[in-house]
């Protein structure tokens, strides 16, 4: 299933980017 593989890869890449990405310290933005 290429679609499933694509979704899994996209999810992994997205998570890695979100984890690697460090937004500036903004209190009261996310609890």
What does this structure look like?
This protein has 1 helix and no strands. The chain has 31 residues and is an all-alpha fold. The protein has one domain. The protein is rod-shaped, with a radius of gyration of 14 Å. The N and C termini lie far apart (38 Å).
Descriptive terms for the model:
single chain, 31 residues
Q: Quick summary of this structure?
A:
With 31 residues, the protein is mostly helical. The protein contains 1 helix and no strands.
How does the SSE layout of this entry go?
Elements: H1 2-20
- Uncertain segments of ≥5 residues (pLDDT<50)? none
Overall form: rod-shaped
Rg over C-alpha atoms, rounded to the nearest angstrom? 14 Å
Number of helices: 1
- Provide the domain count: 1
Class based on secondary structure composition and strand pairing: mainly alpha
H/E element string?
Answer: H
Average predicted confidence as pLDDT:
79
The major β-sheet equals:
none
- How far apart, in Å, are the first and last alpha carbons? 38 Å
Strand content: under 5%
Number of strands: 0
Helix share, percent: 55-70%
């Amino acid at each position: 299933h290429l679609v499933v593989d694509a979704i899994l890869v996209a999810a992994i890449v997205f998570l890695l980017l979100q984890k690697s990405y460090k937004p500036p310290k903004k209190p009261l933005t996310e609890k």
